[in-house]
Specification:
Blueprint: E1 9-10, E2 13-14, H1 20-32, E3 40-46, H2 63-76, E4 78-79, H3 82-91, E5 98-105, H4 108-120, E6 126-129, H5 140-150, E7 155-157, E8 165-167, H6 171-185, H7 190-204, H8 216-224, E9 228-231, H9 244-262, E10 268-270, H10 282-290, E11 295-297, E12 304-305, H11 323-335
Parallel strand pairs: 3-5, 4-5, 5-6, 6-9, 10-11
Antiparallel strand pairs: 1-2, 3-12, 7-8
Helix pairs in contact: 1-2, 1-11, 2-4, 5-6, 5-7
């Protein structure tokens, strides 16, 4: 049976045949990341996995596309939990083509859609939770996206908020609208940003309670399955946009709330937004260390090599639907590190 005709079955579901892209990429990735002291750690970052494609969220993978990504990663890389990978990076004992998969924020579809796919392929992942949005909350960016979704069109006027007037006559126009607005709002004062987004959502008819995010019981169930959980602050502020006392409260508060939920120590952290210098500074790295974490991840591109600072671990965001392009991106990410 050849690679094109073979298939394997998990439960009652027949999985896709072996991917020629993975078969070709695997030896290339092992050359670029041979393991041991010369190893490189690729850390993938995701946020949502949709049950089905949403024209307003074209950059978020749906379940079918995410399954192809996980299939590719599982066959091209040696996938570890992030905590194990960071320990092995420090000791110079990474396997060849080492990788970890991470999710940020705590969306419910991580539990309902992504996890069943990860289980199907036996692939671990680490979930960074912003605790302030659990149990019916909604992040400020989703307030804006859902407000745009409900706008009657053909034009949306948010000039009263200093956010301009936008064409919303098509799905692509709506994506451009909210992308523009999010870029403008992102670096507002943290409290002002949240209040503005919530007011816009309320005026658009977006319900105050949301089912977008996980509930406490989902986080607890994850941990009972020995799924790795990390902290992502309490309300996801860009740390450079708030004072030091508030930043420390956010960093420690998210950690302490998660520890109270699961009854275990949380020692991995993801910086909100995550671009070094722009979104957080060296003083925030010190705060994360002082709060009791042992490592933290950024959104700076690249792969971590032996000697990488444990509080500045880079992550790679996968783009595009073609697995050939995905594999090429993984190789380029390793080569440029």
């Amino acid at each position: 049976m050849n690679a094109q005709s073979s298939a394997r079955v998990a439960g009652n579901r027949t999985l896709r045949p072996l991917m020629p892209e993975a078969e070709i990429s695997r030896p290339v990735l092992r050359i670029l990341s041979p393991g041991g002291r010369r190893g490189r750690l690729s850390v993938f970052i995701f946020h949502r996995v949709l049950e089905s494609a949403d024209p307003l969220l074209p950059q978020q993978p749906d379940a079918a596309h995410f399954e192809r990504i996980v299939q590719f990663i599982s066959r091209s890389f040696t996938v570890l939990t992030l905590g194990d990978a960071i320990s092995r990076l420090a000791s110079g004992t990474l396997p060849a083509a080492a990788a970890a998969i991470t999710f940020d924020d705590g969306y419910l579809d991580n539990w309902t859609v992504a996890l069943p796919i990860l289980r199907r392929y036996g692939v671990p992942a680490t979930f960074f939770i912003a605790t302030g949005f659990l149990d019916g909350g909604r992040m400020w960016n989703d307030d804006i996206i859902e407000a745009v979704r409900l706008a009657p069109g053909p034009e949306l006027d948010w000039s009263a908020y200093g956010l301009g007037t936008h064409d919303v006559r098509s799905p692509s126009a709506r994506v451009h609208c909210y992308s523009t607005v999010l870029d403008k709002l992102k670096y507002f004062d943290h409290a002002q940003r949240a209040a503005c987004a919530r007011e816009i959502a309320a005026r658009a008819g977006v319900p105050p309670a949301s089912s977008l995010m996980m509930r406490t019981e989902h986080v607890q169930a994850m941990r009972r399955e020995r799924i790795e959980i990390g902290a992502h602050t309490h309300t996801h502020p860009i740390l450079n946009s708030i004072g030091d006392e508030e930043a420390m409260r956010e960093i420690k508060g998210g950690k302490e709330r998660l520890e109270a939920m699961i009854g275990e120590t949380i020692d991995l952290f993801a910086y909100p937004n995550g671009v070094p210098e722009r979104d957080f500074s060296p003083r925030h790295v010190d705060m994360v260390r002082d709060a009791g974490f042992r490592a933290a991840v950024t959104t700076a591109p690249g792969a971590a090599a032996t000697g990488c600072a444990p509080f500045l671990v880079p992550r790679y965001t996968p783009w595009g639907r073609s697995m050939w392009k995905f594999g090429a991106g993984c190789a380029l990410n390793l080569r440029q590190s």
